[in-house]
Amino acid sequence: MSSSGVLDMEQQATGATGDGPSERVLLARLRRGDPDAFEQLVLEHQDRVYDFCVRMLGDREEAHDLVQEIFVSVHQNLTRFREDAKLSTWIFRISKNQCINRLKYLKRRGRGRSDEYGDVSEDALSGAMGSPPTPDAALESSRERARVQWAIGQLEPDARMLVALRDIEGLSYEEIIQITELAEGTVKSRLHRAREKLADLLGQLEE
Amino acid sequence: MDVEPQLSHREAKSLFFALADEELPAPQAQAVRTHLDGCDECRAGWDKYARTVQRVRTVEREKAPPAMTSMVMNRVKRERRFGLRKLHLAHINHRFPVEILVPVLLAAAVAAFLVMSAS
């Protein structure tokens, strides 16, 4: 499904409201075309959107490019946001669709620009994504990040998305249901299976 | 206080998800913990499951590169200035592979040249 398709769809009213007065003020400024307001929105959401894209795509270069496209899409479609969900939920919904589209594109092309997390050998982990030499704690943190990301990358995109939204971004099930348009039972059973698979994958790495 | 009946292995494992999310009512959570205390296999399974959830939840987050905001703002300005919205949407929705796009554009250029030179 294209992002515009989703944006065209009725944003199903689920009783969710925005983040309160500050979000409403920001939205009012955005709708007046205030460029500072849009810059504020990007600043507030860019880290979470970037993190989500990295989890989904497993590639920072692709994520870097896609985050820009996501915010351009957000800018172009702001007038269609009806405030029946939080702004962050709506942005995640656009991000999810853009990531799925990008993954399809990358699959057609064979792979991403770089297989950043494709190899979790000890050498790759010690290189930890091209980081310069770091103290032990930071190095271990980078290795752990690479291990976890490698395991997430082995999941199917739908499962990856649920792990990213729930266990990494910490969203509520209500928000996840709005973003994914899946039933609560489906979200929970798929997430449970994804966690079990992650446990097996991470266990394999430690053997 | 209600006492939950003893859980089977299968029932205990099916509750790992809710236990990890701290969504189980206290009596049910206690029933699972009681089962885990007496079952090494389920205890090992729970430890593995809970540790995985914990690792994923505490993994270091990726931060957007520092220049991201200015890059986005530049792109938004560019889109507005040149009115490339439709082209942009076509690109993000379809992302024509380069190996198709380049020959198509070349063919269009040659065709245009031939038409112009014939007239």
The number of helical runs of chain A is 10
Mean pLDDT of chain B: 85
Give the termini distance of chain A in whole angstroms. 40 Å
| CA gyration radius of chain A, whole angstroms | 18 Å
Explain what the structure shows.
- The complex is a heterodimer of chains A (207) and B (119).
- In chain A, 71% of the residues lie in helices and 0% in strands.
- Chain A is built from ten helices and no strands.
- Chain B has 119 residues and is an all-alpha fold.
- Chain B is 75% helix and 0% strand.
- Chain B contains seven helices and no strands.
- Chain B is elongated.
- The termini of chain B are far apart.
- The mean pLDDT of chain B is 85.
Short description:
By secondary structure, chain A is mostly helical. Chain A has 10 helices and no strands.
Secondary-structure blueprint of this entry?
The complex is a heterodimer of chains A (about 210) and B (about 120).
Chain A: H1 3-8, H2 21-31, H3 35-57, H4 60-77, H5 87-109, H6 122-127, H7 136-153, H8 157-168, H9 173-180, H10 184-206
Chain B: H1 9-14, H2 16-20, H3 26-38, H4 40-58, H5 68-82, H6 85-94, H7 98-118
Helix pairs in contact in B: 3-4
Give the key terms:
heterodimer, A: Rna Polymerase Sigma Factor, Chain: A, 10 helices, 71% helix, disordered N terminus, B: 2 domains
